[in-house]
């Protein structure tokens, strides 16, 4: 029979032969967890290395490595000729323990901002909707491992690490600049570009540079929830303007606001979020002219430019801006594994210089390896190839969503079939309680996040992403969305 301690060790430790983590580290991690939850109390004598190797069916050298690892982290003490003993994780040599558990609350007041309450929720169902993300299942780990290994072998990266804090320009700036000039008709240079971690980070940087408390920010009456959170955090006064099938109503701005009363306008003119309508050419020209007259900034968020299925994407406002009124936000690498998605800002050099200084303070290390990989993929044409391959697949999913909505809902909804992007916006002709729809869908093993819901006196709509679902999954999800719809009406 095993001793009580051996039984505890045997119950606490599991070894996964398929795990890339070394066996001794797996065992050490399990034992640390047992010490943390006090399954193994302070002072407990652990089995000797021979006993541990027999118990777990490992080589004795592995058992020795386990205890050496635990000792190096301070979880056990190895006493010569006596054994290995558990130490208390909170105690330090020569000091008394003063805290048994970590405090639940601070001993000082701080400002709790309701704007930062996350709208995201964990899906505990097999299927879920989102607002237009890509499908992670389409990517090959082998391919990305090859790209990472190639980047790590670049000796030039070492030099970049040594100079990164002083010069934020990079190989990626040059390649991305060339790519944007070719695909979006820009006339930029690398000094007009700042690489960031995400579009949300880009917008946060801009809000910190442009917005002071009580500055007026205009957004559509249907708008991007994440952008609204960022503006609220900057203590801006957010005012809404109407949105129709031609995008933002620019005449409304001229009729209801005066010069120097607006700090910035946030828009998504290529495909308005969430409705997917494009800003019409006349309104685009009018918006640029109004920005010049009134002296406000236009923040153009072009989050899904690369996914264009039919025709040509609407050229960004930046491509026809002659007065430096537009700050362009975008991201590249969406056709790749999410780790490689990279945000960027395109703006006049004086603003980019200031943004770089702020970004250096927030993120001095950056991600040079990712930047090197993305730059090489653009330079070698691989980025373009990946986008073209994914477009065909996502177009088929867009069409499947269109067919499923027509088949299961028909005249019950209104929606615009987008020419690009990975989401569609549907409006129910009969207003229903969307919160009840969310709850009812869970009975069909589907999560509909609440941040996708848009419900007012005049609007009852949902933004539904389809990029992350297969054709069969789309049909299943929309079929059960209809069932949930019927349930709450019955």
TrEMBL record:
Keyword terms of this UniProt record: DNA-binding, Pyridoxal phosphate, Transcription, Transcription regulation
Protein name: Transcriptional regulator, GntR family
Entry similarity comment: In the C-terminal section; belongs to the class-I pyridoxal-phosphate-dependent aminotransferase family.
UniProt keyword Nucleotidyltransferase, yes or no: no
Organism, as annotated: Paenimyroides marinum
Chain ranges of the HTH gntR-type domain: 21-89
One term of GO molecular function: DNA-binding transcription factor activity
One Pfam short name: GntR
PANTHER family in UniProt: HTH-TYPE TRANSCRIPTIONAL REGULATORY PROTEIN GABR
Keyword DNA-binding attributed: yes
Signal peptide: none
């Amino acid at each position: 029979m095993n001793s009580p301690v051996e039984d505890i060790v045997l119950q606490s430790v599991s070894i996964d032969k398929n795990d890339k983590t070394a066996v001794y580290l797996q065992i050490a991690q399990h034992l640390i967890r047992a010490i943390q939850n006090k399954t193994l109390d302070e002072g407990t004598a652990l089995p000797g290395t021979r006993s541990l190797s027999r118990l777990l069916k490992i080589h004795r050298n592995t058992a020795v490595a386990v205890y050496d690892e635990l000792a190096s982290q301070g979880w056990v003490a190895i006493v010569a000729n006596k054994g290995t003993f558990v130490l208390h994780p909170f105690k330090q040599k020569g000091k008394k323990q003063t805290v048994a558990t970590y405090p639940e609350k601070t001993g000082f007041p701080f400002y709790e901002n309701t704007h930062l309450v996350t709208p995201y929720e964990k899906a505990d169902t097999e299927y879920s909707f989102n607002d237009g993300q890509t499908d992670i299942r389409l990517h090959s780990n082998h391919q990305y491992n090859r790209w990472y290994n190639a980047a790590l072998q670049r000796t030039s990266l070492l030099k970049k690490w040594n100079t990164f804090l002083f010069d934020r320009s990079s190989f990626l700036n040059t390649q991305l600049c060339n790519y944007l000039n070719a695909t979006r008709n820009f006339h930029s240079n690398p000094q007009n570009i700042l690489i960031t971690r995400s579009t949300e980070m880009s917008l946060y940087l801009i809000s910190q540079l442009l917005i002071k408390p009580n500055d007026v920010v205009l957004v559509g009456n249907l708008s991007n929830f994440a952008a609204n959170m960022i503006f609220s955090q900057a203590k801006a006064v957010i005012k809404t303007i109407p949105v129709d099938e031609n995008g933002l109503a620019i005449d409304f701005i001229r009729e209801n606001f005066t010069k120097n009363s607006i700090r910035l306008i946030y828009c998504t003119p290529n495909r308005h979020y969430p409705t997917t309508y494009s800003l019409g050419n006349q309104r685009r020209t009018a918006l640029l002219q109004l920005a010049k007259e009134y002296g406000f900034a236009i923040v153009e968020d072009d989050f899904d430019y690369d996914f264009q299925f039919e025709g040509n994407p609407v050229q960004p406002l930046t491509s026809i801006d002659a007065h430096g009124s537009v700050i362009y936000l975008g991201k590249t690498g969406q056709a790749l594994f999410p780790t490689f998605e990279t945000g960027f800002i395109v703006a006049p050099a004086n603003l980019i210089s200031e943004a770089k200084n702020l970004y250096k303070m927030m993120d001095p290390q950056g991600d040079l390896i990712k930047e090197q990989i993305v730059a090489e993929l653009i330079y070698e044409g691989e980025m373009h190839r990946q986008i073209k391959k994914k477009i065909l697949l996502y177009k088929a999913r867009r069409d499947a969503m269109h067919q499923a909505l027509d088949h299961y809902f028909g005249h019950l909804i209104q929606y615009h079939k987008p020419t690009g992007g990975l989401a569609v916006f549907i409006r129910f002709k009969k207003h229903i309680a969307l919160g009840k729809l969310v709850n009812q869908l869970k009975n069909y093993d589907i999560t509909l996040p609440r941040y996708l819901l848009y419900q007012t006196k005049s609007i009852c709509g949902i933004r539904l992403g389809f990029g992350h679902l297969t054709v069969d999954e789309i049909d299943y999800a929309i079929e059960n969305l209809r069932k949930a719809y019927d349930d709450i009406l019955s």
